[in-house]
């Protein structure tokens, strides 16, 4: 009599079922990322709350990455694809491919190197000794200050700044509208951007390389736009447009200071796009030195107060023939902004 062979148990582990809870959690985490991404992707004149929210776009990469991990645990393909796509978008914006590029100079064209530093001094309360120390230790040759006051100017003089940078164009004020430019090179006042609440002076810097004898002229705009708050958001947009018009002028342009805007604001990107419209270079983008140096997480504000995620609202913007290197950010006690610093190569005349 034959007996049926005993059944062989299936040694394979049971297939894990997709977890609804993980997938739902992933979607909840990624939902604000999707909202910010929509506003970031559409270049419109968004209301105040959206403009302020867009400043923190770089930090959206954190919840986007977390959502991908949660989606993988949930094992639902469409949730994985959705969260991964949003993460990819955040990474593209974090390391953008559409930044301005430095244009190579024609063969035989020399350049003059200059080390530049800029700082919003918060009503002149920034520590003068730290400013002078940064200038001295880093070989800074050109310094721009926003919210410059007479009191800060006196303290900088006492710390010996004018011995290092003897040339000065200064308009100190106590209401945050003051500005100053210190330099080792001769300076010439060249104008003022019209109808802006904070002064934005234009200064001609006469550069020279003592080693090679090369000379260059740099048009420097000390930028300080109104912040996008309450009903003043229209003035903020107007200030950025005036900076863009200045950038469209011929010559080597450096527009440096407190823009109160980030690369994630369409208004700032339009400034970079339109600054050279119709120029001989064929309308090439202006270069935001910090973004081009992958400094999107090198926050310049806030350096004091509540522990908010830092954002980059201080910028060095240049015409595309100006090269840059060694971009860095430095905290200065007494100011809610950090100083930004870079070495620029200015094409010789």
Q: Which percent range describes the beta-strand content?
A: 15-25%
Q: What's the average pLDDT?
A: 92
State the helicity in percent bands: 25-40%
> How many strand segments?
12
Q: Characterize the quaternary organization of these chains.
A: single chain
SS-based class: alpha+beta
Terminal residue distance: 108 Å
Query: Order of strands in the sheet with the most strands?
Result: 3-4-2-1-12-11
Radius of gyration, taken over Cα atoms and rounded to an integer in Å: 25 Å
- Dominant shape: elongated
Instruction: Outline the low-pLDDT stretches.
Output: 278-282
- Contiguous helical run count: 10
Summarize the helix and strand pattern as letters. HHHHEHEHHEEEEEHEHEHEEE
Main beta sheet strand tally, sense and closure: 6 strands, mixed
Structure characterization notes:
With 349 residues, the protein is an alpha+beta fold. The protein is 32% helix and 23% strand. It is built from ten helices and twelve strands. The strands form two sheets. It has a six-stranded mixed beta sheet, with helices on one face. A six-stranded mixed beta sheet has the order 5-6-7-8-10-9. A hairpin with a 7-residue loop joins strand 3 (167-171) and strand 4. The longest helix has 22 residues, at 20-41. The radius of gyration is 25 Å and the shape is elongated. The N and C termini lie far apart (108 Å). The model is unreliable at 278-282 (pLDDT under 50).
């Amino acid at each position: 009599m034959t007996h049926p062979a005993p059944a062989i148990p299936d040694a394979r582990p049971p297939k894990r079922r997709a977890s609804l809870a993980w997938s739902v959690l992933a979607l909840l985490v990624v939902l604000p990322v999707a909202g910010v991404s929509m506003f970031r992707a559409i270049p419109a004149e968004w209301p105040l709350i959206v403009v302020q929210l867009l400043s923190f776009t770089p930090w959206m990469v954190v919840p986007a990455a977390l959502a991908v991990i949660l989606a993988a645990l949930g094992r639902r393909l469409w949730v994985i694809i959705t969260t991964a796509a949003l993460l990819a978008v955040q990474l593209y914006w974090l390391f953008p491919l559409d930044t301005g590029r430095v244009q190579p100079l024609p063969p035989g064209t020399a350049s003059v190197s200059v080390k530049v530093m800029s700082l919003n001094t918060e009503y002149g309360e920034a520590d003068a000794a730290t400013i002078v120390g940064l200038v001295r230790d880093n070989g800074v040759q050109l310094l721009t200050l926003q919210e410059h006051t007479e009191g800060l100017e006196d303290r900088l003089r006492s710390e010996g700044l004018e011995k290092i940078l003897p040339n000065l164009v200064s308009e100190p004020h106590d209401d945050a509208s003051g500005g100053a430019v210190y330099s080792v090179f001769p300076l010439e006042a060249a104008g003022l951007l019209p109808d802006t609440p904070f002064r934005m002076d234009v200064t001609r810097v006469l550069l020279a390389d003592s080693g090679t004898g090369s000379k260059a002229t740099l048009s420097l705009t000390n930028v300080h736009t109104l912040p996008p708050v309450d009903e003043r958001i229209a003035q903020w947009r107007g200030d950025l447009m005036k900076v863009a018009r200045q950038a469209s002028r011929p010559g080597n342009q450096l527009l440096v200071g407190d823009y109160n805007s980030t690369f994630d604001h369409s208004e700032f990107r339009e400034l970079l796009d339109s600054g050279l419209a119709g120029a001989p270079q064929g309308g090439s983008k202006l270069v935001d030195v910090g973004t081009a140096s992958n400094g999107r997480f090198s926050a310049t504000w806030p350096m004091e107060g509540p522990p908010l995620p830092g954002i980059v609202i201080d910028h060095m913007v240049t015409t595309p023939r100006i090269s840059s290197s060694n971009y860095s950010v430095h905290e200065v006690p007494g100011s809610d902004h950090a100083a930004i610093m870079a070495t620029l190569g200015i094409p010789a005349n």
